[in-house]
């Protein structure tokens, strides 16, 4: 009897143990749970590497496209890419613009034109246009009759002078090239005369320091032209009110202190 009780107790204990194992298995879905492991070290072989985009020092050959405005319209329209075809349109063209393709490889002739333009854009001059844009602007002058400003109204600044010089390098066969060269030579002569004191505009000028003594005539005579010669005390020596002249001619003496011009424009030594 005692043996039977012990046997039953052992069997009951085994049953509880088996039941507990089955319960655990149901709770875990019958699968062994995965454990996430971390590593404190990084694999050098799998480390990401930085890539640098390839840079090219040559973005391609420079090219320009044109848009021109005709005499009977106010809008610009696409124009032929060949200058001779645009020139064939004659004075029907009033103005052309040039657009660069972004290329920065220039021909030998184009590089000479850039040299004539002078200093290119620098870090200190953020507003200056890059070379390809400046060159496109010069090609636009080549496409326009009279180089746009060269003949009428004429060159008035050093910048225009350098632009025209560059244009004559790019398109020496322009129909108005000869007249443009004459305009350029006239401007350069005017600059030289202004620098040496034998050409000057309206204003008050010190004789011997700013302008040279001599006989002068206004380049574009005007009925409103008034002039005055002063001594060192500021007194009039002679004025345009003192005499009537069919032709305006003034002789400035070396003893004069200053000379004043009003509404006369530029004077040139004759």
Description:
The chain is α+β, with helices and mostly antiparallel strands and 270 residues long. The protein has 2 domains: 64-195, no CATH class; 197-269. Helices cover 32% and strands 18% of the residues. The protein has helices at 2-27, 83-87, 108-117, 131-143, 158-170, 177-195; strands at residues 64-70, 76-78, 93-100, 199-200, 203-206, 214-218, 226-230, 236-239, 250-252, 258-262, 267-269. The strands form 3 sheets. It has a 4-stranded antiparallel beta sheet with strand order 4-11-6-9. A 4-stranded antiparallel beta sheet has the order 5-10-7-8, with no helix packed on it. The chain has a 3-stranded antiparallel beta sheet with strand order 2-1-3. Strand 1 (64-70) and strand 2 (76-78) form a beta hairpin. The longest helix has 26 residues, at 2-27. The protein is elongated, with a radius of gyration of 44 Å. The N and C termini lie far apart (156 Å). Residues 1-57 have low confidence and may be disordered. It comes from Pseudoclavibacter terrae. Residues 28-58 are annotated as: Disordered. Keywords: Signal. Residues 29-57 have a biased composition (Low complexity). This is Septum formation-related domain-containing protein.
Total domains, how many? 2
Through-space gap between termini: 156 Å
The count of strands amounts to 11
Task: Give the strand line-up of the largest sheet.
Answer: 4-11-6-9
* Tally of helical segments: 6
Largest sheet: 4 strands, antiparallel
- Give the low-pLDDT segments: 1-57
* SS content category: alpha+beta
Shape: elongated
Mean pLDDT: 81
Approximate strand percentage:
15-25%
Order of helices and strands: HEEHEHHHHEEEEEEEE
What Rg, in angstroms, do the CA atoms define?
A: 44 Å
């Amino acid at each position: 009897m005692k043996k039977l009780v012990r046997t039953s107790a052992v069997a009951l204990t085994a049953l509880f143990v088996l039941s507990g194992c089955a319960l655990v298995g149901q709770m875990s879905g019958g699968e062994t749970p995965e454990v996430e492991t971390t590593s404190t070290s990084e694999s050098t072989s799998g480390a990401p590497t930085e890539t640098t985009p390839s840079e090219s020092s040559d973005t391609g050959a420079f090219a320009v496209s044109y848009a021109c405005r005709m005499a009977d319209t106010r809008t610009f329209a696409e124009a032929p890419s060949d200058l001779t075809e645009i020139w064939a349109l004659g004075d029907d063209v009033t103005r052309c613009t040039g657009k660069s393709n972004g290329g920065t490889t220039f021909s030998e002739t184009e590089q000479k034109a850039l040299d004539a333009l002078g200093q290119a854009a620098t870090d200190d001059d953020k507003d200056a246009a890059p070379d390809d844009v400046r060159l496109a602007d010069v090609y636009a002058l080549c496409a326009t009759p009279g180089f746009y400003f060269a003949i009428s109204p004429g060159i008035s600044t050093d910048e225009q002078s350098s632009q025209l010089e560059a244009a004559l390098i790019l398109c020496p066969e322009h129909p108005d090239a000869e007249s443009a060269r004459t305009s350029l030579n006239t401007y350069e002569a005017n600059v030289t005369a202004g620098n040496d004191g034998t050409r000057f505009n309206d204003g008050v000028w010190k004789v011997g320091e700013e302008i040279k003594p001599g006989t002068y005539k206004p380049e574009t005579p005007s009925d409103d032209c008034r002039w005055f010669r002063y001594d060192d005390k500021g007194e009039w020596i002679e004025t345009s009110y003192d005499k009537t002249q069919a032709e305006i001619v003034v002789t400035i003496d070396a003893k004069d202190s200053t000379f004043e011009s009003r509404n006369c424009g530029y004077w040139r030594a004759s």
